[in-house]
Specification:
Distance between the termini: 86 Å
Radius of gyration: 27 Å
Oligomer: single chain
Length: 181
């Protein structure tokens, strides 16, 4: 749909992360409610008194509502990280580096000023920079995990050896040794 809209000179048809946060806050996921909200927005846009009333909302109210929605989105991101297996080799490194690279445009806004325009476009957005970092590092770690390691002291498979074997009981299950003497 976005490609078709772009060929006609219209804006892209995109979903925004705010919708996810509002859906999570309210618990409403009905397309009928979304259609009704769209109708209300069209009415507000066409009726100038309603438009002036919405434009008259104090900036603090609009800012606080946006802050709450983005905080919910951040919590959802933390929940997704909690569900991931960060204890596996490299996963915590990928998450940490992607977060660090994603924060670079915010922490140091002039960092990419000396780079060509296309690099500034890619890396100047924290979302794009963090996502690219995560995807590239995941691909790199996946490729390096597949290659066999045969050096001294290195495992050939990515799995840890079992602590016990089926024919060897755990130490807690073994009968105590008879006293010597």
């Amino acid at each position: 749909m976005s490609l078709f809209a772009g060929t006609l000179g219209a804006s892209l048809m995109v979903t925004s992360s705010e919708n996810i946060g509002i859906s999570r806050l309210t618990g409403v996921r009905s397309r009928f409610v979304t259609a009704a909200a769209g109708g209300v927005l069209v009415a507000v846009g066409l009726l100038s008194p309603l438009s002036r009333a919405v434009a008259g909302l104090p900036p603090a109210v609009v800012g606080e509502s946006a802050l709450v929605v983005y905080a919910v989105i951040a919590v959802m991101g933390v929940q997704m990280l909690a569900r991931s297996e960060l204890a596996e080799r490299g996963h915590s490194m990928i998450a940490a580096l992607a977060l660090a690279v994603g924060l670079l445009p915010i922490v140091a806004p002039t960092l990419y000023d000396g780079f060509p325009g296309w690099i500034r476009t890619l890396l100047g957005s924290g979302v794009v920079a963090g996502t690219l970092t995560a995807v590239l590092l995941h691909a790199l770690f996946t490729v390096t995990d597949r290659s066999p390691r045969t050096g001294a002291g290195q495992r050939q498979s990515g799995k840890q050896p079992p602590l016990t074997t089926p024919d060897q009981p755990r130490s807690a299950d073994r009968a105590p040794a008879p006293p010597e003497g």
